[in-house]
C-alpha cells in the first residue's frame, strides 16, 4: 500500500495543543475524523472508506473496502469471487477486500477540507475547555492583559491564553486602556459569536463593585458585614448600604478603614468613582436621610401609599442633596425606593408663613363683620394695620414664645379691642425690619387724626410688651 504524503498535520496539532491547552490525543482523534469526513465528501459513491493515520510521521492512507460477491451489481463497492481470490487466496463470498486510494490529484483537496473540518472541531473542543474552566467563574473578577484595542471593543488575554472581550458600553466612561496593560473586570457571560466562544467582560456592572469590596474588605468577604443594596452610576458615583451581623463591628467604619485605607483601592480601580457607604436601617426616615448623606435635613414626611418623601432641608444644603446633575438624589431614590421631593427651608420663608398664620382671619370674626354697620369696621382695620406696622418695625426676636392675637366681635357686632387667644408656643426666626419702616411710621402718625389712633397704638404696644 502506498502512503499519501505531502501533508503533516501533527506539527499543527502539537502547536494547537500547546497554545489552547487541549489534550494532544483528543486533537489527533479529531484529525482522523476530519480526514474521514473530507474523503467521504470527495468519494460520495464509495460506501466504505477508512483513514489510517501514521502518528509518527504525520502521513495518512485512504482505504476502500469492497464486498466479495458472485455477480457484480455495483462495481464501486463490489468485487467478484475470482478477482478477490487473485488478491487473497482465502477470500470467500461476503468478505471485504481493502483497496488503497492513491489519487495524487485529490490529495491537496482532501487536506484543505481536513483543515477546515479540523478547525471547526478545535473550536468545539476549545469551547468545551473554556466552559469547563470558566463556567464557575461567571460573575467573578478575572485578570487579563490588553491584547488588541478597537473603536468599540477591547480584547483581553486571560489565563491559559483564552481570549475575552469588553465592549465600549461595558467600560467606565474614563477607561483608557493601553496595549499590554493588566486590567480587572467582571466575567459577565460566555457566548458563542461567529462560530467561536466569547468571554464577555464588564466594568460597569454593579456586581463588579461588590466583588471589589469583597477583595479589599475582609469583613465583607467572611460575611461579618453584609452588602444589602447597591445603587451605581458607573465611573461617577455609587451608594452601598451595609449591615453588620456582629454588634461589635461598625459596618461603615470597617468598610472605609483608617483614613480611607480600605475604600481607596476600590475608588482607584474605578477611576475615582465616589462611593458612599451607608448604614442600613429599617426606619424609612433614617434610610432616606442616610441615602441622601447630607447635613441640613430638618424633617422628612413620607407618603407610604404614593411612595413619596417630602424632605425639608436648609437652602444651603439643597445643592449637595441634589448632587451634580442630580446624581445624589437619583441614587438615593433607588436606595430608599421612594420619590424624593425637597422642601427648601429659609428664615425668610418661615417668616412669611408665620405672618400668614398670624393674620389669618377668624371665621367667627368674618361672620360677625357681615352684620356690623358699614362705618364701624374702620376702627378694626386701622387697629390691625397698626399692629402689622409695629410687628414689621425692627424689633427682633429669636425663637421666643409668641402669643397670637385674634379680634373678637362685640355683642352688637362691632369689633372691639384685641382679646388674647390661647397662647401657642411657636419658634420664630428673627424678623428683619423693612427698609421703609421709618417712612411707614411717619405716614401712620400723620394720618392718625382721630381717637381711633390712640386705641390702635395701645393695642400695638400691648402686643409688643407681651
Question: Briefly, what is this?
Answer:
The chain has 16 helices and 17 strands. The protein starts with 9 loop residues before the first helix and ends with a helix.
Keywords:
5-stranded mixed barrel; rod-shaped; 17 strands; single chain; alpha+beta; 4-stranded mixed β-sheet; N Utilization Substance Protein A, Chain:P, domain 4; disordered C terminus; 23% strand; 466 residues; OB fold (Dihydrolipoamide Acetyltransferase, E2P); disordered N terminus
Number of helices: 16
Which CATH architecture of the domain at 10-133 would you pick?
2-Layer Sandwich
> How large, in whole angstroms, is the Cα Rg?
45 Å
Percentage of β-strand residues: 15-25%
Unreliable residue stretches: 1-7, 374-466
- Output mean pLDDT: 76
Could you characterize what this model shows?
By secondary structure, the protein is α+β, with helices and mostly antiparallel strands. Among the domains are: 124 residues, N Utilization Substance Protein A, Chain:P, domain 4 (2-Layer Sandwich), CATH 3.30.1480.10; 65 residues, OB fold (Dihydrolipoamide Acetyltransferase, E2P) (Beta Barrel), CATH 2.40.50; 116 residues, no CATH class. The chain is 39% helix and 23% strand. It is built from 16 helices and 17 strands. The chain has a five-stranded mixed β-barrel. Strands 1, 2, 3 and 4 form a four-stranded mixed β-sheet that branches. A hairpin with a 4-residue loop joins strand 13 and strand 14. Helix 1 crosses helix 2, helix 2 crosses helix 4 and helix 14 packs across helix 16. It starts with 9 loop residues before the first helix and ends with a helix. The N terminus and C terminus are likely disordered.
